[in-house]
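Hello forum,

I keep getting stuck at the same step: I have a sequence, I want structure tokens, and every attempt I make locally crashes halfway through. Rather than fight my setup again tonight, could one of you with a working pipeline run this one for me? It's a single chain of 160 residues.
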Amino acid sequence: MSTEFRPRKLGEYGRIALKRKWMIILPTLAIGLAIGYVVFRLPDIYESTTLIVVKSSTLPNSVVPMITEETLSRELASISAVVTSRSSLEPLIEKYDLYKEERARGEAMEVIIDQMLKGITVKVNTSRNDITNAFNISYRGRNPQTTKAVAGELASKYVD
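Reply #2:
Ran it on my machine without issues. Output:
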């Protein structure tokens, strides 16, 4: 018993789609509504980034060594350890009333600080060739004004 299939024409596909239009429209509509609901319920997240340029010294290289990207990365790692410590971040959380819902639920400060650390990014800037010794500090938060202020305070701590 052999079955032969003939190639279908474009008009036949159109008639099949019209015949089963509700099988196409209803799932598409349901998926679209579900995606719209999820997107509508997502919280707003803002990111503030600042660029800090490390100027080369005007002193000769024999007195002060030249800053390379590797040296800058090592220095950033040691400064980051101090700036992102609990003693540095906890006052910021209290000053700007960050993670209010989490603190109201009674979550431990270590959990809140870990959550804040996930929102902080420090990277050596390699996107601009004219500024080789620079790094970006970014902070992500739920409020645009507080996010900007926290990023500014983090930047000032790195500069200090």
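The chain is about 55% helix and 15% strand. If your local run keeps crashing, start a new thread with the error log.
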